[in-house]
């Protein structure tokens, strides 16, 4: 029997396992596919909510804490595994912000570098970017991004090397094992797994998993389609954001463009309409992309939740079953902080971040029935 059993091998599940292992715990992580291959792979890797001033303060607190962790985490994983998560901190240019005044007030309250810039400034930073409406362009110099597929690869490689962590992949969870009114493990396609504490980090599939305990968690799949261009390295240097769509550059010239927001259940197919819409957005941000072909087109499923506020903590009627899910568009953004919030609870440590707003209380669950 392990100390902890984690269900779900995305970035949230893997970071939870790593933090528990760092604290000397024995962990089994069960993943129905390959770790890091669902939403953790499919996203863009911006280490901030797209418009952070529009979120509730608890989400902002998690994102600010996580933002400070990523540079060190990326260096650690590179040294331990040889896999570079490619953390880049080259800032973000907002090309058309309607609520710029609100954004600047938010930044001043937090002491966050953010300034209004003119067309000449935008052109200096990104010569190929489209002109921004006067007074609507903002510059956030501290924003960073990671290459999320490689972050997932590095986390998986690190966990595989740890004797205290057992990765069980290609293993589906069929249900929870209960004895004398307590959950003691899970039944899987590879046999039963028992544990003292269970953590459900199933992303968009979390509600399906918890339904087996008659827990109705308001987390649903929200499809996001993305495309990528292969450009010469350096064509775009910084994250560019306009009207809710973004371009994220990688060091090898790959340019990610995203993303759609679709209520389509668990469907991950791509379609021509989304491709055309994403291409139009990309060309409105960097017009020269009209001359380049799209080399990739894919979709992932985000774990949507009310107000984008994740559920982090023990389930009301199952005190040894914990959940960490519902991060919506910000799973990778919030992962270091939200996993720290949970591990503090799992190990009875003093909380560095107030967990109260994220608890899956009976009142919070009932409010969304």
TrEMBL record:
Keywords: Oxidoreductase, Thiamine biosynthesis. GO terms for biological process: thiamine biosynthetic process; thiamine diphosphate biosynthetic process. Transmembrane segments: none annotated. One of its GO terms (cellular component) is cytoplasm. Pathway: Cofactor biosynthesis; thiamine diphosphate biosynthesis. Residues 3-344 form the FAD dependent oxidoreductase domain. The keyword Oxidoreductase applies. SUPFAM superfamilies: FAD-linked reductases, C-terminal domain, FAD/NAD(P)-binding domain. One of its GO terms (molecular function) is flavin adenine dinucleotide binding. The keyword Kinase does not apply. PANTHER family: GLYCINE OXIDASE, SARCOSINE DEHYDROGENASE-RELATED. This is Glycine oxidase ThiO. The lineage of its organism: Bacteria, Pseudomonadati, Pseudomonadota, Gammaproteobacteria, Oceanospirillales.
């Amino acid at each position: 029997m392990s100390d902890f059993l984690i269900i779900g091998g995305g970035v949230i599940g893997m970071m939870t396992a790593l933090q528990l292992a760092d604290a000397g715990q024995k962990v089994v992580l069960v993943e129905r596919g390959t770790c890091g291959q669902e939403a953790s792979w499919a996203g863009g890797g911006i280490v901030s909510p797209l418009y952070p001033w529009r979120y509730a303060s608890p989400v902002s607190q998690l994102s600010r804490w996580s933002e400070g962790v990523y540079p060190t985490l990326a260096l650690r994983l590179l040294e331990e595994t040889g896999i570079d998560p490619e953390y880049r901190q080259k800032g973000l240019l907002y090309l058309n912000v309607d609520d710029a005044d609100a954004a600047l007030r938010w930044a001043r309250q937090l002491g966050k570098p953010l300034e209004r810039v003119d067309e000449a400034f935008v052109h200096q930073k990104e010569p190929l970017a489209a002109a921004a409406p006067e007074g609507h362009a903002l510059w956030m110099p501290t924003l960073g991004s990671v290459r999320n597929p490689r972050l997932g690869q590095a986390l998986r490689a690190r966990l595989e090397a740890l004797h205290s962590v057992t990765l069980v992949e290609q293993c589906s969870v069929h249900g929870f094992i209960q004895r004398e009114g307590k959950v003691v493990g899970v039944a899987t396609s590879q046999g039963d797994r028992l544990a003292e504490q269970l953590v459900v980090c199933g992303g968009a599939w979390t509600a399906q998993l918890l339904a087996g305990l008659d827990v109705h968690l308001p987390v649903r799949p929200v499809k996001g389609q993305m495309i990528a261009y292969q450009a010469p390295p350096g064509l775009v240097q910084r994250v560019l954001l306009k009207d809710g769509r973004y371009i994220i550059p990688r060091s090898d010239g790959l340019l990610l463009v995203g993303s759609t927001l679709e209520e389509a259940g668990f469907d991950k197919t791509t379609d021509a309409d989304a491709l055309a819409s994403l291409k139009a957005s990309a060309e409105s941000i960097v017009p020269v992309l009209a001359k380049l072909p799209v080399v990739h087109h894919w979709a992932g499923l985000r774990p949507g939740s009310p107000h984008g506020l994740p559920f982090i903590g023990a389930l009301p009627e199952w005190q040894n079953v914990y959940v960490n899910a519902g991060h919506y568009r910000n799973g990778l953004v919030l992962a270091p902080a939200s996993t720290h919030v949970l591990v503090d609870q799992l190990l009875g440590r003093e909380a560095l971040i107030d967990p109260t707003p994220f608890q899956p209380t009976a009142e919070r669950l009932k409010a969304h029935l």
